[in-house]
């Protein structure tokens, strides 16, 4: 089996933006790590990595001969003032030891069609990947998924433009509501994704009690922050890709629950 080594992000002192801990990343790369799972854009904190950050990541990986698996499933959901850069376009050398994973499932809400793509420029790596996916019987798709994949990327631009505006408005609405009505919480402004990373630590609850509070008192289904690693304790993830009416109902339930503590 494989051993998972966490490279936790560093959050600014004011509880705002997250950055990569490059000293920790380099130390762990030099300790014998073989593969880096790069989430670009990042889920759950919503960071869009810039060119300088990606260059530093890839330099470390090339230096230590580390395979990069770049998860770019949220690459189409980028908010104003940000730009997604595909890591494989940064370094030709790094791209030769990289697997780029993409799918229209998040962007176009077609997860149920089970369709995605793996882009691998190196022939030997591509053949090895294909051999393993065939052995595990996960290489097959279906005609409906393929058709939806092609249709989404061929004809979906106008729909996506409208979606991004709606999501950005929802994002800002959540940020404003929490700042105004729930000062006990801290919401991280995402540059991408439709997910809000929220800090509940000031409520003083252990993670299991926080989960129970969200489910039983707030009557909400948020994602447990601990599921994203040890650094997620005290956090929950909220999905704001929904009608505004639904979002407001959820925010109201959360406020009522916190006010009644």
Write up this protein.
This is cysteine-S-conjugate beta-lyase. GO terms for molecular function: cysteine-S-conjugate beta-lyase activity; pyridoxal phosphate binding. Its cofactor is pyridoxal 5'-phosphate. This protein has 8 helices and 10 strands. The chain has a 4-stranded mixed β-sheet, with helices on one face. Strand 7 (186-188) and strand 8 (195-199) form a beta hairpin. Helix 1 packs parallel to helix 2 (51-63). The chain folds into 2 domains: 10-142, Type I PLP-dependent aspartate aminotransferase-like (Major domain) (Aspartate Aminotransferase, domain 2, 3-Layer(aba) Sandwich), CATH 3.40.640.10; 158-259, Alpha-Beta Complex (Aspartate Aminotransferase, domain 1). It is of the alpha+beta class and 261 residues long.
Sum up the structure in keywords.
261 residues; alpha+beta; Aspartate Aminotransferase, domain 2; Aspartate Aminotransferase, domain 1; 2 domains; four-stranded mixed β-sheet; four-stranded antiparallel β-sheet; 10 strands; PyrdxlP-dep_Trfase_small
Indicate the CATH topology of the largest domain. Aspartate Aminotransferase, domain 2
Low-confidence stretches: none
Span from first to last CA? Answer: 44 Å
Number of helices: 8
- List the secondary-structure elements in sequence, H or E: EEHEHEHEEHHHEEHEEH
Gyration radius over CA: 20 Å
Q: What class, by secondary structure content? A: alpha+beta
The total tally of domains equals 2
The quaternary structure here is single chain
Biggest sheet descriptor: 4 strands, mixed
Q: Approximately what portion of the residues adopt beta-strand conformation? A: 5-15%
Biggest sheet strand order reads: 3-4-5-6
Mean pLDDT equals 96
Using the alpha-carbon principal axes, give the shape: globular
The tally of strands reads 10
Architecture of the largest domain, CATH level 2? 3-Layer(aba) Sandwich
> Helix amount, in percent?
25-40%
CATH superfamily of the largest domain: Type I PLP-dependent aspartate aminotransferase-like (Major domain)
CATH class of the largest domain: Alpha Beta
EC number: 4.4.1.13
Pfam families: Aminotran_1_2
Keywords: Lyase, Pyridoxal phosphate
InterPro entries: Aminotransferase_I/II_large (IPR004839), C-S_lyase_PatB-like (IPR027619), Class-II_PLP-Dep_Aminotrans (IPR051798), PyrdxlP-dep_Trfase (IPR015424), PyrdxlP-dep_Trfase_major (IPR015421), PyrdxlP-dep_Trfase_small (IPR015422)
